[in-house]
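thread from #wetlab-drylab

HS: before we spend reagent money on co-crystallization trials with NAP, can we at least see a predicted complex? here's what I'd submit
DV: go for it
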Amino acid sequence: MPKIKCGVLGATGAVGQRFIQLLANHPWFEVVVVAASDNSVGKTYGEAARWYVSPDMPPAVRNLLVEPVEPGLDCELIFSALPTEAAGPTELAFAAAGYVVSTNASSHRMAPDVPLLIPEVNADHLPLIAIQWKKRGWERGFIVANPNCSTIHMTLALKPLHDAFGLRKVVVTTMQAVSGAGYPGVPSLDIIDNVIPYIGGEEPKMETEPLKILGRVADGAMQLADFRISATCNRVGVRDGHLEAVIVELERKPSLEEFTEALATFQGEPQVLRLPSAPAWPIIVRKEANRPQPMLDRDVQAGMASVVGRLRPDTVLDYKFTVLGHNTLRGAAGGAILNAELLVAKGYLTLQDTLFRQTTRTAVAVPKAIFERMLNQARQGAPVEVGGVLATASGQPMQLLKARNSADDPEHAYQMATEDQRRILAEIDEKGLDIFAVYHSHPSAPAYPVARDLTGAYYSNAYYLVLSLADPGRPVLRAFRIDQTRGDVVEYPVDIK
Ligand SMILES: NC(=O)c1ccc[n+]([C@@H]2O[C@H](COP(=O)([O-])OP(=O)(O)OC[C@H]3O[C@@H](n4cnc5c(N)ncnc54)[C@H](OP(=O)(O)O)[C@@H]3O)[C@@H](O)[C@H]2O)c1
């Protein structure tokens, strides 16, 4: 399968280098563009980046010329690791120009129409993208943001607690690594033998971002979660890995066993969807009295998990614990890559966007009455995906044959039930018809086949129709030909008449 072409903005910095490292052998994404400040533009990446992560710089990027951070880059997915000031206007310009932007910067995190994503926690916030398109008049591009690096790890741990027991108050004190300040970051003479009890802008982020992430999207708007957070943030002389001491007050006080069980058994959509960068267990609970520690635990599950320990009752609020997470892996580049993988799995970003754009082909004619029946079926079935087959023969009216959905996760996938498939094939055979198209609905995702739709597409001579209700007032039907053996997906215009 061809890979989605990516550009990394801020590719030479601390987070940018992690993007380059993590994307080196990614199954879906390929870095074809690197961009950075005027200091680096025109140099090769090998010359511009002072490589500081292990292993060595991937050979495929060494000779890429560093480009300016402006739309016009030859890629469709942008990973942004720009400083906040540069990120704000630049990311808007890329999204407006049709690029999908997955950012680490804080500029757009709290915008009400931008999903602030931790895929295990709030994959259900993706419908905000449709609001972004509508509100900003964008057709294809959009922005999703990664939370602050300390917020991500604390919120991963808060999610199962909030779901099971309800959060009332959270008090957190962080001990944050120097790589959190970028490269070269905090001067060594300021941080060796020292703790700096202030990190500019960090505490407000930790006190507000979790409320958005743990909030919900209702009636097309973001509703923030209703509890209070107090944060104190410190910079410590650790290279990578933020340690956070968290105390919580809960609506319902569980036993320590229940509290521990809620954390240890937590999984989310990335684990169900088996996304390439997803850790098997997003929260690892350590029972030892002296864990987690940055040096020992930050790289667990490739730096994509949050490690929780020291679970115990608190004398002022209800319970307290320590959480540790890698700040430039799950806390930055790894998190933004997992966000993009979720976008692929949910159909917001297609594996063959470049091919999809070649739409100069003859239109696929769908009779209006058939379209109306598909639409009724999709609306009645939502939030479950529904589908079936359109069959025809020359001179005969098109027939719509519905088939039940037997997917394990029918709200996010459509798999034609085997017995319905057999019945439909027998009927088609008996009436001398041909399969014209296989259709299914996307109740909240756009009208593009997701990764699982591609692997289930067995009829290379039929069209694959995807009907999206992402914007309920403006359903969209798109048509594709999918050739699994060649790995081709080609979009065709649709003519409803
Ligand atoms: N470090 C972390 O742990 C972490 C975690 C989560 C989120 N973040 C966020 O991720 C972003 C990047 O952080 P970082 O730590 O990687 O910073 P960094 O090491 O300072 O890297 C900044 C990058 O942006 C480029 N750049 C700087 N100013 C620019 C401009 N005006 N126009 C275009 N490019 C410019 C730099 O290019 P040159 O090399 O050419 O100067 C470099 O590639 C920030 O928004 C930060 O808040 C960081």
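DV: The first strand starts at residue 4 and ends at 9.
HS: ok that's useful, forwarding to the group
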